[in-house]
């Protein structure tokens, strides 16, 4: 399965592969311009939330990898607050620490 990012690349997942094509980047899902944005670590996290709760009412950023936090910072700074949906692992905790700075 492929999930397009804002830069023209894809986040790719299969039973045997997890990676991205170049250019690597995050994906924005537009919504009404609100003070709060949703931030998901990966596209399966995002798709699971949509399945459980329906389409997001806030603008949403799917990082496609925590390595894209730095690339997404200019956009993320434009919001007053963020709803973070990141994995509870070292990469997720490190991403939260970077975002808090």
Could you characterize the architecture of this molecule?
The protein is of the alpha/beta class. Helix content is 30%, strand content 26%. It has a 4-stranded mixed sheet. Helix 1 links the parallel strand 5 and strand 6. The longest helix has 11 residues. The N and C termini lie far apart (34 Å). The model has no long low-confidence stretch (mean pLDDT 94).
Key features of this structure:
alpha/beta; 26% strand; single chain; 4-stranded mixed beta sheet; 3 helices
Offer a concise description of the structure.
By secondary structure, this protein is of the alpha/beta class. It is built from three helices and seven strands. The N and C termini lie far apart (34 Å).
Topology:
Elements lengths: L1 E3 L5 E4 L4 E3 L6 E3 L6 E5 L2 H11 L6 E3 L6 H8 L4 E5 L4 H11 L1
Parallel strand pairs: 5-6, 5-7
Antiparallel strand pairs: 1-2, 2-3, 4-6
Shape: globular
Spatial order of strands in the largest sheet: 4-6-5-7
Largest sheet: 4 strands, mixed
Number of helices: 3
Q: Roughly what fraction of the amino acids lie in strands?
A: 25-35%
Structural class: alpha/beta
Helix proportion range:
25-40%
Give Rg in angstroms.
Answer: 13 Å
How many strands? 7
Query: Would you list the SSEs in sequence order as H and E?
Result: EEEEEHEHEH
**How far apart are the termini?**
34 Å
Averaged pLDDT, please? 94
Q: What are the segments in which pLDDT stays under 50 over at least 5 consecutive residues? A: none
